[in-house]
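haha ok so turns out i had the wrong file open the whole time. this is the CORRECT one, sorry everyone. sequence first:
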Amino acid sequence: MIQRALHSKNFIACLLTLATGTILFFEAPFPEDNLFLQLIALRAPEVFAGLKYSYLVMLFTTPYITFSILLSGLYIFALKSHRRIAPAQLPPYPDPRHREELFVVVGEVHNPRKRGPSETPRWLIIPERGLYTGIAILGAIGTGKTSCCMFPFAEQILAYKAADKTKRIGGLVLEVKGDFCRKVKGILERHGRADDYIEIGLNSEYSYNPLHNDLDAYELAYSIAALLNNLFGKGKEPFWQQAYTNLVKFIILLHKVAYDYVTLFDVYECAISPDLVERRLQETEKRLLHGVVISLSPEAYAEHVTQLQELGFVLNDETRIYQAPESQKLRHALDALGIKCTDDRFLNKTKEEIRKIEQLEAVRRWFDNDWRRIEPKLRTSIVEGVSVFLSLFDDNPDVKRTFCPPKESYEGVNKSGRDLRKPLPSFSWLIENGAVCALNFPVGMNPGLARALGVMMKLDFERAVLNRVPQMEAHPETYFRQVFFLCDEYHHFATVGENEPTGDEKFFSLSRQPKCIPIVATQSISSLKSALPGESWRTLLQTFRTKIFLSLSDEFSARAAADLCGREDQLKVSYNISESGHDARVSWLTGKPLSDKTNISASKSYHSQIDFRFDTKVFTELKNAESITIAYDGFNPMPPTLCYLKPYYNDPNKSYFRQVADGEL
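then structure:
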């Protein structure tokens, strides 16, 4: 009540002036019967009238000035410093189930630059076009990254168009603790989407083979080599990555030709056993080249009769040409003799069979003329560099069963009688059907394997998302649903390509067109810096146009966050106190200067200075559910704003300050 009155102090001063002036008008009227005033009225009537009316006006103006000074002093010195603004009612929180357009409510905004409630609070909203540019959440342990950001954001995205099977949103969820997957599953169940949840884990009903897709052998091998670099670091010598890629490429190619199927265990088994590669080569050659014979003319046969008889050549009575069953040994012998021969290995073969025969010959040339020629020590080093990762899929039967399923799983026929799991559908199918795939492999079980599996699944997902672009361009009339990528503790799964074609920074820079919404959370910028090589963390961080900073506990992250928020001209106040003395002298008793006449002066000055919008100290002192948000709406960047987040376990319509007062935060 008092605050409202002080806000209307001018109106109150007018009312008091009117009352006081009326009283004075009757109690202290103009003294017209004064002898001197009567004399002035006779001699100068105009002057008398001026004095009279001035007196009457001052009966009202003087009280008004007095009351204005008193009320202004009361407002400035008595009540303004103790003024408290009660948290005003927030606008109604938009229910995500009934939203006609996709957007995410980050939290409530009161005063953009300073703590405290406002009389006009509002919601900080990121529209759909801004979501496609990515959201990065950074905060120290226990600051509420998951409870205040990841859960509420996931709720809003998964609830959007939940009742419409053609528009509900699907995507990929990665985490390292195991609890986030259960929360996502609960969100889907609440919104009637329980069937959309697909979980990959050691105890789940699904299996996932990272190598079973439409990529060629080189792309698969290159992705494995790139994964090795991200897991164990990249050396200065490019030979090792090239050697890893070459070895894995030809082993994958051999299995695709021989069985149309390959797993990481198959690659590991052949990498450590050259004899196994030889046996599988021979088996494949025998099957693909069955019935193939090598033919020689009588003239060529006559030049080397003795040697060719030992190789099994016999005369065909019908064609009068010497022939022998095709074999690798026979080909080597003919090459040694310098004999050019013809064969019918492509005779009566389909295009697919001809292609496989040519690929098989390429594997044979690599194995005989490249791999076997490498010195044993160097070959052992190359194998060790690959097996240190691939062996993870051999020593744990549960991991092998889940991530290296037999071909029977995809054929739908259980010939061996083993306990087979359902194969995970392709990510292209999952995306277009609104399914939510979650990797539930806690990092505590095996940190290296958890990261490797998460990275492989993430790369597979990213390829599927980018493959939507040509389809969207070819069919602009078709509705393509949005897709999301949620990753908690992102520094465990972050990968960068730098000068290579793969990497998260390249995917996030292109994810806007295929309508992907990437939302990641990590502990700090330092976490990304320590997980990524060199300065590549800068390239990765700049792909997220919206950044939400919760409390940071290290100086580097706080300084980087302050730099990202930018600087601006600010009015700074400086005070100066000086003391001067006259007839100064030195005391004989104390040895200190003395003066009989001294002057003390104080001055206050203002000057403009470019400084941080939010200082580093602010980022280290943010309370739980407080954040500084740099948001982007898809067209224009929003200025850095102090935003209060909404934990998933509290009522979003209740103001942050009321939640604090009630002990809910």
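The CA atoms of residues 53 and 532 lie 85 Å apart.
again sry for the mixup
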